[in-house]
Amino acid sequence: MENELTAILTFLEKSEKLKGTLRTAWDSEGKQESTAEHSWRLALMTACLLPYFPEINAAEALEMALLHDLAESVTGDISAFLTPDATAKSQQETAVFFQLTEDLPLNQKNHFQELFIAYEQNTTTTAHFIKALDKAETILQHNQGKNPADFHYEFNLDYGKKYFTGEVLTTLRTLLDAETKKNLQKNIGEKH
Hints:
Blueprint: H1 2-15, E1 22-26, E2 32-34, H2 35-49, H3 58-67, H4 72-75, H5 86-101, H6 106-121, H7 125-144, H8 154-158, H9 166-191
Antiparallel strand pairs: 1-2
């Protein structure tokens, strides 16, 4: 057991770098958000919305939310606005994720890696749910953040739209889009 706990502590120590990985999103005070902060609120959003999705395994959804961007502790965050090569990004992040989880106890390593692959490839209902909420959390942060004057709110209106399926996610997206449109109008007004 001591060896397993040591391996878990090592994994957690490596994961600490996510706290310093910055994203292209700003909080309501104007501080650039870290990937760890995004992952935390994604997990919180997941917990809040799970009651609407009884078919989803709550533990797996929360684990996936916490793990989905862990590789960025090494690769850094590449903004979707910059339209990176999605295949290359996924391959790089998968390789890094596998390295980060390599020393975990075997069952845990396999479980985390399976969750990560499911997320990356969007192969399960849980992955689809977390992908939608990942986009929703990003849009929410963009809408409430104290952003630079040249911030591109228009990007929010199409970002990840394909993941918002079903009544709950479609309604969530409608609410987020309405807030984005308010920010667009406000931003246009400030430029004139």
